[in-house]
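Worked example 3. Consider a protein that binds protoporphyrin IX containing FE.
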Amino acid sequence: MEFLVLTLFLVVMAVVLLSIAVSRGIRGCRTPPNLPPGPGGIPVLGYIPWLSATPYRDFQELRKLYGDFYSVRLGRRWHVVLNGSRVIRKALVENGSACSGRPNWILNRILKGKAVANEQPDSHWRMHRSFWYALFRQLGHDRIDKIIKQELGSMKDALNRENGSPIDPSDFVKLTFCNIICMFCFGKRYAAEDPEFHRLQHNADTYMQNLAKASRSLPFCGQAKKVFQDISAGYKGIIKFIKERIEEHKSLRLRDRTRACDDLLDVYFNGNEAIDEVDHIGILPRMQDLNMNDSKLMNGKIASEPRSKNMNGIDEANLPNIVLDIFVGGLETINAAMMWSLLAMVKYPDVQQKIQKELRDKIGPHQIPTFQQINELPYTKAALLEVYRIGNVIPLAIPHRVTQPVVIDGYELPTGTRLLPNIYSAHMDPEEWINPEEFDPTRFLDEKGQVKIPQAFMPFSVGKRVCMGENLARKELFLAFTTVLQNFSLLPADDEKMPNFDGIPGTTRIPLPFKLRAIPLKT
Ligand code: HEM
Ligand SMILES: *[C@@H]1O[C@H](CO)[C@@H](O)[C@H](O)[C@H]1NC(C)=O
Ligand SMILES: *[C@@H]1O[C@H](CO)[C@@H](O)[C@H](O)[C@H]1NC(C)=O
Ligand SMILES: *[C@@H]1O[C@H](CO)[C@@H](O)[C@H](O)[C@H]1NC(C)=O
Ligand SMILES: CC(=O)N[C@H]1CO[C@H](CO)[C@@H](O)[C@@H]1O
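Given these inputs, the predicted complex is written out as structure tokens:
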């Protein structure tokens, strides 16, 4: 009898527990006590089966249930999702010294060596960031501006030749920004039909678009393996291309040591020879600025060869990865931002006309605006800020990792916790923006018509890991956008239904394909 009662009791308990589990649905796995509560999901897979192709949206939805700061298990690993600008700033800025690591994720298994984007926030990373800026600084604003102007001139001519017929703008956008970055890095540009250009674009696409899939691909389904292989293949293709350019530059420089410094690789190999002088006049960061006396470096190669053959001690073996950062970081992102800006103009003709009027009034029809003049064009500037907000080009930033125990919102996150800054949630937060789904440049203007930038705006992320290409990207986008609007009126192609701002998900978010007509303006 007692045995029967006990059995009955156990069965009832099991049913109760099971129904609790079911009613709580996806909260099957309990969150560890030091992480904020959130959906754990099922064993092994965690929450992955519930994620759509747009995890930033799923995370936005979960925010309504679990608040700004919650945990989610993806595969075996717990991730803490940061939603809204308050929590993102708290982690990445206020506690930036503890929250700026990178997880040891798929990229580290593929990259042979280090690139800025996957490095831990140590002295190497700081040095690589300084090195990066030094390269651009030494290339110089004049050269950078000249390259951008030339490529935008070609784009304008190509659009003119279409004479208002329906076109897929991405063909023009991709070629233009690929040529700009190839001119920066290698002094090389391509014609639209060049197979090398298409190969490069394909490899960069594969590499970038699969990165986002990496963290949500289901193990055991062959899917994870495929994603890994695709990233690997894209990476190898680009690296091979970069290495060929490096060899080319080396041999050119051997033949002619006085060769002009026209691109970043020239600068690198030139810095090679002139390291003393260069250091002297302070164009490059000084060794002490780069923390060269850090103990790790002391034991490393760089410290044992203070005047190594390479500019400021950057190992030539690592050069391809650093160039990859510039190349991949600067390609898809600006393409995406430019495509969002064109889509917005086609969808909002009134905004387009206001920008064209501002350009006519403040710049005139025959003058090409400079980036400095962006401040004389508040409406245009506001429209581009709105493009960055609604475009959400990198909606989940790049994953961060906690590098020392840190207390955020009452939870002591242990070292190693992965953080996902949901930039999308900050940009689409109804508590920060009125009708966030609407495209409206005036949200960036105050009552005097001056540009104001709310705290919740962070397309390039915030804190120590902030995007390295921010200024370059803003300059390129401003110049490309104004060049197009000064010369053309943008119309939808044949009343074709225009996509909304949903976009194709991926590491970078781009609009769904659309066609437009660029009608040349008469002066
Ligand atoms: C519209 C254009 C761009 C957007 C929206 C954008 C956005 C971002 C974001 C959100 C991050 C992640 C920061 C974090 O982890 O917290 C990032 C990192 C980075 N971006 Fe960009 N980016 C753009 C253009 C560029 C360009 C043009 C370059 C290079 C030429 C570039 C190079 C990098 C690099 C190297 C990192 C890694 C920094 C680090 O880990 O320390 N980006 N970017
Ligand atoms: C995190 O930020 C708080 C508030 O600024 C500060 O008191 C604390 O020391 C920080 N913790 C770490 C590990 O940086
Ligand atoms: C590195 O050098 C700077 C200035 O030369 C010095 O202030 C600092 O204490 C040094 N750091 C280490 C770890 O030796
Ligand atoms: C196009 O823009 C250029 C400046 O980039 C200007 O000189 C030219 O007159 C413009 N053409 C038209 C048709 O507006
Ligand atoms: C915008 C948004 O989803 N805000 C949510 C933040 O978290 C609270 C609960 O803590 C929700 O009530 C809000 O809706």
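Take a moment to read the result before moving on. The pocket of protoporphyrin IX containing FE (ligand 1) is lined by residues 116-117, 325-326, 329-330, 333-334, 337, 393-394, 397-398, 421, 459-461, 465, 467-469, 472-473 (CB under 6 Å). Residues 272-312 have pLDDT under 50 and may be disordered.
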